[in-house]
Amino acid sequence: MTASIKTLPASDVLDTLANAPDDVTTTILDPWYNKGVGGYREDYNDWLGDIVAAAARISQHVFVWGFPEIVAHQVTRIPAGFKLSAWLTWYYKNCPSVIRGWRSAQNACLHLSADGAKIYPEHFLNPSQLERWESGKMRFVPGPPTVLEVPLNVGFVGKDEQTGHPAQKPLSVIKPLILMTTKENDLVMDPMCGSGTTGAACLQLNRRAMLCDSAEQWIDVTQQRIRRCYLGIDRAMTA
Ligand SMILES: C[S@@+](CC[C@H](N)C(=O)[O-])C[C@H]1O[C@@H](n2cnc3c(N)ncnc32)[C@H](O)[C@@H]1O
């Protein structure tokens, strides 16, 4: 593995984006969700809209994670020069039942892309499909589905990945975003990186990553995780 993963000192997302380098291809935004862990803010839609706009100024692709009813508000405020490429759904049926009523089983992820930005559905082809595509024998490249069915990392599920972060995403829901929008050595920015899942995914896929979070605690967890990956002793990376 040769990818470089850089972890910045703890900082607010807007500062990180304002000081970003000029060669970011893809930015992944996975903020707290305005309910539960992370609390509630009245101005959430405007706050997130400003973050999306700042991410769009520095990257070709922006992914915005959240519960569907929360990210839906961003669909009406897509930055100029960008379009909604896809509304992705992460479906997990193993959410522990903690409340009376509907049990949450999905997250949404908006894929916003700049006009003319490149995508790489060919990165999802198997070797024989790739051979046919490269020899010009395949008219259409079948991309991956917009619904990612991946279990939540809870209990014994995803044990090797778990870091203790309360909203850690599985590697399997971050890797498709990176594969679809970047090629090897491209730079991926995650300014609210939590446990560093984007960094671990970039290491596996040989992409560069720049990671930050406002909380020192999660920067430390991210650095330890990335160090384990580099040393080849992270069990989720060696499985
Ligand atoms: C949903 S979690 C990200 C989880 C991450 N994708 C993972 O897989 O571990 C949201 C993260 O955003 C961070 N955060 C919240 N507000 C922030 C802000 N204003 N600036 C930077 N980071 C922030 C939190 O500390 C938290 O770790």
Describe this structure in words.
The chain has a single domain (5-238), classed as 3-Layer(aba) Sandwich (Rossmann fold). It has helices at 13-18, 44-58, 68-71, 127-134, 171-181, 197-205, 216-231, 235-238; strands spanning 5-7, 24-29, 61-66, 82-91, 106-114, 147-149, 187-190, 208-211. The radius of gyration is 18 Å and the shape is globular. It has 239 residues and is of the alpha/beta class. The chain has an 8-stranded mixed beta sheet with strand order 1-8-7-2-3-5-4-6, sandwiched between helices. It contains 8 helices and 8 strands; from the N terminus they run E-H-E-H-E-H-E-E-H-E-H-E-H-E-H-H. The chain starts with a strand and ends with a helix. Helix 6 links the parallel strand 7 and strand 8.
- Say what the CATH topology is: Rossmann fold
**Given the C-alpha coordinates, what overall shape results?**
globular
| Terminal CA distance | 15 Å
Strand portion = 15-25%
Look at the structure and give the mean pLDDT. Answer: 94
Into which percent range does the helicity of residues fall? 25-40%
> Class by helix and strand content?
alpha/beta
| Alpha carbon gyration radius | 18 Å
How many discrete domains?
A: 1
Number of helices: 8
- Which consecutive residue ranges, at least 5 long each, have pLDDT under 50? none
CATH class: Alpha Beta
Using DSSP, what is the number of strands?
8
Biggest β-sheet: strands ordered side by side in the sheet: 1-8-7-2-3-5-4-6
* Bound small molecules, deduplicated: S-adenosylmethionine
